[in-house]
Amino acid sequence: MANDVLTYDDEVILEEQGFDDHFHEHEHGDHFKSNFVNHYVFSMDHKIIARQFLITGMVWALIGAGMSIIFRLQLGFPEESLTWIKPLLGKWIAVDATTGIGTLMPEFYYALVTMHGTIIVFFVLTAGLSGTFSNLLIPLQLGARDMASPFLNMLSYWFFFLASVIMFYSLFLSTGPFSGGWTAYPPLSALPQASTGSGTGMTLWLMSLTFFVVSVLLGGINYITTVLNLRTKGMSLWRMPLTIWAFFVTAILGLLSFPVLVSGFFMLICDRMLGTSFFLSEIFIEGAALPNVGGSPILYQHLFWFLGHPEVYIIILPAMGIVSEVLSVHARKPIFGYKAMVFSILAIGFLSFIVWAHHMFMSGVNPFISNFFVVFTLIIAVPSAVKVFNWITTLYKGNIRLNTPMLFAIGFVSMFISGGLTGIFLGNSAIDIQMHDTYFVVAHFHIVMGVAAFFGMFAGIYHWFPKMYARFMNETLGKIHFWITMIGAYAVFWPMHYLGIAGVPRRYYSFNTFNSFDDFTALNQFITIAAIVVFAAQVLFVINFFYSIWKGKKMTTKNPWKATTLEWTTPIHTGHGNWEGNLPVVHRWAYDYGKDGIDYVPQHIPLTEEEKAQEGSH
Amino acid sequence: MEISIKNRINPQLFGLWTALASITMMFGALTSAYIVRQAAGNWLEFRMPDLFIVSTVVILLSSVTLQVAYNGYKNQKEGLYKGGLVLSFILGLAFLILQYNAWMMLFNMGVDMKINPSGSFLYVITGVHAGHILGGITALIVALLHAFTLPFEYSDKRKNRFQLVLHYWHFVDLLWVYLFVFLLMTR
Questions:
Q1: Are residue A190 and residue A143 in the same domain, yes or no?
Q2: Residue B9 belongs to some domain of the structure
Q3: Cβ atoms A500, A431 nearer than 8 A
Q4: What's the CA gap between A524 and A499, in Å, rounded?
Q5: How far is residue B72's CA from residue B79's CA, in Å, rounded to a whole number?
Q6: Which pLDDT value is given to residue A617?
Q7: Averaged pLDDT, groups of 10, chain B, 187 residues long
Q8: Which residue ranges does the record assign to the Heme-copper oxidase subunit III family profile domain (chain B) (predicted)?
Q9: pLDDT > 90 in chain A, percent
Q10: Residue B66 is part of which domain span?
Q11: What's the DSSP call for residue A354?
Q12: Chain B contacts of A222, Cβ < 8 Å?
């Protein structure tokens, strides 16, 4: 089946069937005449902005992952000398004058863990993932010239850049960056005297994250408005690719949850600077009582996790959308259960707002209220399982091309299953109370939203790289990257489940003083070595990425993957405005693969007479 | 940029509404936090300054005058347009001055920022709201510049731009009414 190939000529279809929006009639009024600065730097072209988000995200990913290597060295090899890393970390490596052995300062260990979380969650997997692909794909797949407001879109990137600069600067403070955990719980975050990083480090952290939220909101407003208002003719909501559905719901989640975090930040800033007591009560520092009375640190946790939980879906939904698209294209089969996929995205989006307290079972939340959150948390397993089954069914009997994007998409499904199952353990408050402060939780969230989201991102980068740079990434390097990452990531995080079940607590600098954890020394060394190997594979990916931008195999046809979606109807070197002449008009959904024995039928191909008859008979 | 397809609603206005949804969430969070914190006890009771009633009246009036200005522009009545706009601007400034005086009254009553979360919440909620009014006043200044520097003529583009200011201003006005009623009811 599906061996026939439909032949069509894009130029002719766009000329005859396309929709003329008079885009090129205003020759003098062309907004898109550009020089170097406003083409590559202050660009308003959504495709350039997408690349800016991607490359900034990659820089952050290297920094964030590099930090994890340093603290993994401490955890795996606490006795070894780290003097060799002193040129990079300076005074944060304390060198013993007599033995010459360098040790990582505990304060900086916590700063590294905090920054690792903040950077990966916000700067890489929110800005780098949803910022890149929402920007790239929303206008291209919907048949729009650009975003609803290209200017706000540009601002969105530059606010992110500003947030990045501030956070980066905070890494070099003499007192170190913030070190109280990426969740920034008070009192560590509220009292400048609480720890070295709680002073200037925390102030910069708050500034940076506030600018970051502005960036997310500006982006989100644009994505939502574009999806609802700028779709080309014929692109009804039910014809949108699943990528767009995922980005759309992601944007709504961000728009509704980030402002709540900002409210928490306002109160935190007041506690820090104006002496209020929103989150502080009866605290003693070095024997002296603080005047603050009547605040509640739990209140901050509620505000934080009201963002924090939707945030994990802000991270995973775009990855899910990308994976759905990549699986369908490279399995040469329509996505299984398109409507079920859309409804499960919507269900996950809705449920994500009413489960936040499952992060707080250990905070002394009323057990009756906990029950409510347990039930809703477990219900999330239903739409998630629907998605997993649909992905697997999409693969079933597919004509699978095992290229790099496909491998990463399949890897995503594997990771999502492994991490999702432990989520069912942790969603139960009774089990969570035992597991919460152990490595079990570290294993769970790293697999399900860290590694899985990275896999979705890699699938997207390998798949849409030709659209971004008109060249392909190197397949061999890509496959090496995949297999090392796939096996290595499991090697890093799978053993952590056992550590967690055995009760090894997370957030500890060293286990030297606990005899009960001596048995795990070798396991910790294994994890550290695996982490270093995986990190090396990511460096390989970055080399492949930049090498391929300039030297990669050139793209010779518009639609190399033989995909149905509209981004592949644009010219190989896509200019600002995306389509040279008319906009494509959409006649069908995004997944006509293998229909009536034809390999694929793009969305802008008109219905045949038979298809029209079929549509009529429904 | 050019819009691909005729839309029933102006995308910029739609974008503004999504932004308003986001602002609503922020104040929703602040007022929810207020309720949660109040339920925990140790809550200082005090009387809200009556001046807030005056400021409520002022901000409601400013919405009316801005609507008059907008209708004036649509019906090409230059006097109503310019007069309404100036009046709205003055009323908006008056609102901020009244808020400031109300804060000073509170402060002189002994309810300062630090004394108890009940006072802190009041300052933060009304303060963040005042920040949003300030944003509205900036938009009004832009609208005033348009009104007094550009020749008076009707165009859809200018109407749409004015509509953005109008909707935002009505929103921060209604937001204040919500906050004021909320603060009164949850004493």
A1: yes
A2: no
A3: no
A4: 9
A5: 8
A6: 62
A7: 53 92 96 91 87 96 97 93 96 97 93 88 95 96 93 89 96 96 89
A8: 14-187
A9: 77
A10: 48-185
A11: G
A12: 15
Residues A127, A241: Cα–Cα separation, whole Å? 21
Residue A302 forms part of a structural domain? no
Q: Which two tokens stand for residue A45?
A: 């072209």
- Positive or negative CA dihedral for A563, A569, A573, A577? negative
Question: How many domains does chain B contain in total?
Answer: 1
Cβ neighbourhood burial of A307 (10 Å; 0-12, 13-18, 19+): buried
**DSSP 8-state secondary structure symbol assigned to residue A595:** E
Q: Give the rounded percent of residues in chain A with a pLDDT score beyond 70.
A: 97
CB A156 within 8 A of CB A215: yes
Provide the pLDDT for residue B152: 87
CATH number at residue B163: 1.20.120.80
Q: Residue B36 and residue B33: Cα distance in Å, rounded?
A: 5
Count of residues in chain A? 618
Quick one: DSSP state of residue A580? Answer: S
The residues, ordered by sequence, that sit 6+ positions from B107 with a Cβ below 8 Å of its Cβ are none
Choose the closest CB to B36 out of A224, A260, A299.
A299
Note whether A465 and A536 are within 8 A (CB). Answer: no
Q: A429 and A572: one domain?
A: no
Tokens at A463, concatenated: 């798949």
Measured at the CA of A576, the angle between CA A573 and CA A582, to 5 degrees, comes to 85
Peptide bond into A187 cis (omega under 30): yes
CB A489 within 8 A of CB A534: yes
Residue of chain B whose Cα is closest to the Cα of A148: B11
| A322 shares its domain with A393 | yes
State yes or no: pLDDT of A195 exceeds 60.
yes
Residue B3 lies in a domain: no
Which chain B residues are closer than 8 Å to A309 by Cβ? none
Task: Tell me the per-residue pLDDT of A450-499, one tens digit each, with 9 for 90 and over.
Answer: 999 999 999 999 999 999 999 999 999 999 999 999 999 999 999 999 99
Number of folded domains that form chain A: 3
| For B16, nearest residue in chain A (alpha carbons) | A221
Verify that A250 and A344 share a domain, yes or no.
no
The pTM of the full predicted model, rounded to 2 decimals, is 0.93
CA A503 to chain centre: 29
Nearest-by-CA chain B residue for A145: B4
Please spell the DSSP secondary structure of A430-453, one letter per residue: HHHHHHTTBHHHHHHHIIIIIIHH
Instruction: Answer whether residue A15 shows pLDDT above 80.
Output: no
Report pLDDT digits (tens) over A75-126: 999 989 999 999 999 899 999 888 889 999 999 999 999 999 999 999 999 9
Contact A23 B5 (CB under 8 A): no
Note whether residue A296 is domain-resident. Answer: no
Q: How many Å separate Cα A150 from the centre of its chain?
A: 22
Tell me which residue range forms the domain holding A225.
48-281
Question: Does residue A287 carry a pLDDT above 90?
Answer: no
> CB-based burial of residue A28 (10 Å sphere; 0-12 exposed, 13-18 middle, 19+ buried)?
exposed
> Considering Cα of A437, then A443, then A444, then A447, what sign does the dihedral take?
positive
DSSP string, A142-178: HT-SS-S-HHHHHHHHHHHHHHHHHHHHHTT-TT-S-
- The SS3 assignment for A26 reads coil
